[in-house]
């Protein structure tokens, strides 16, 4: 099975989010490896979840639709 990875962190600059994108990606890649999933693309961005038109998220959705692949994200917040 193949999938797309998506990571996002808020635009806040607090210390808890400095390594957030890398930690999310590692968790997704670990999950994929344990479950026989090949990650074919990774999309990441630092943008508020309140913004509806997130550019990287929209790219991930477009790719997922065109290739009929799921998107794996650590959190939907």
Poorly predicted runs are: none
Shape: flat
Q: Biggest sheet, in brief?
A: 3 strands, parallel
Number of discrete helical segments:
2
How much of the polypeptide forms β-strand, as a percent range?
25-35%
Binned, the helix content reads 25-40%
SSE series: EHEHE
| Number of E-state strands | 3
Radius of gyration: 12 Å
Would you give an account of this structure?
With 77 residues, this protein is of the alpha/beta class. Helices cover 36% and strands 26% of the residues. The protein has two helices and three strands. It has a three-stranded parallel beta sheet, sandwiched between helices. Helix 1 links the parallel strand 1 and strand 2. It is flat. It starts with a strand and ends with a strand. 17% of the residues are buried.
Quick structural gist:
By secondary structure, this protein is an alpha/beta fold.
List the helices and strands and how they pair.
Layout: E1 2-9, H1 20-34, E2 38-46, H2 55-67, E3 71-73
Question: How would you describe this structure in keywords?
Answer:
alpha/beta, three-stranded parallel β-sheet, 3 strands, 36% helix
């Amino acid at each position: 099975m193949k999938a797309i990875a998506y990571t996002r962190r808020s635009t806040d600059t607090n210390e808890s989010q400095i390594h957030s994108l890398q930690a999310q990606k590692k968790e997704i890649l670990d999950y994929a490896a344990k479950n026989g999933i090949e990650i074919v693309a990774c999309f990441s961005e630092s943008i508020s979840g309140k913004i509806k038109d997130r550019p990287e998220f929209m790219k991930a959705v477009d790719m997922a639709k065109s290739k009929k692949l799921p998107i794996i994200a650590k959190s939907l917040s």
